[in-house]
Amino acid sequence: MTREQLVPSSKLTLNRAAEAVPPYAWFGVSAIFHYLGPSFAVLLFPAVGVLGVAWFRIASAALIFAPFTKPWRTIRQADAKTRLLLFGLGACLAAMNTAFYLALDRLPMSLVAAMEFVGTIAVALYGLRTRRNALALLLAVLGVFIMIDLKGSTDALGLLWASLNGALFVGYIVLGHKAAEGGANGGVERLGAAMAIAFVILMPVGFSEAARAFGAPNLVLAGIAVGLCSSVIPYIADQLAMSRLPRQTFALCLAILPATATVIAAIVLAQIPSLQDILGVALVIAGVAVHAPPKASAG
């Protein structure tokens, strides 16, 4: 009996999808939904509350993941090291998404996205080996700092939440990449378990605000849509990309997030970018284009 016959077809599907599609395509899907969902979330803040929207995001994502990832089984069958990874990733997701929304409530989305990338610079620097990649990183970093323009932001609390979100985003990259080791399917199963843990952590934090929307089906459906667009589609795409990209390559590709955030914020939230923002976006895209991933060693 072949290995393919021993492994359930549902498990083979994700692994085959990861191999069949270029990892940069999966990253592109993630980059779009990474800020499309939050832009919808911002529109819900007045009706549901910031913490209520964060609760809906995690709760709906955990509910969507549960049937096909079976988080209870993943946690039960995991060894001590893997359980520590799952609980670490779950806590990171709960805290990161909350800090992200609290920052979005006070700052433009393009600024929050730019600050989110700053923390990944250290990850991208790790393993940097060529002058071409050094140039790529320099262009991307320059573009991000042009977009940040901290002089225009006087909301200290908003900047604090954005900084915390950026630091936690580094944790998500490191822990998420660790979860993706061994294939896309295993990574998505671990992601589902971590999301269930994040829901348990966040349950007492945002439930009281979220409960105000329970009597309005349209708000509940909108909250579920935020979870689908923010924490299901992009995180699965991340796992499919992470299973094939080195950590430092994935970290540098994240430089495109401020660009996608700027475009989506302009379309959905009418946050029109300045010429300075456009210059920053152009430099970020140039950095990603120049970057060359390390060549696979001959085996």
TrEMBL record:
Keywords: Membrane, Transmembrane, Transmembrane helix. InterPro entries: EamA_dom (IPR000620), EmrE-like (IPR037185). One of its GO terms (cellular component) is membrane. It comes from the Bacteria. It holds the Pfam family EamA. Residues 157-290 form the EamA domain. The chain crosses the membrane at residues 21-37, 43-64, 84-103, 109-127, 134-150, 156-175, 187-207, 219-237, 249-272. This is EamA domain-containing protein.
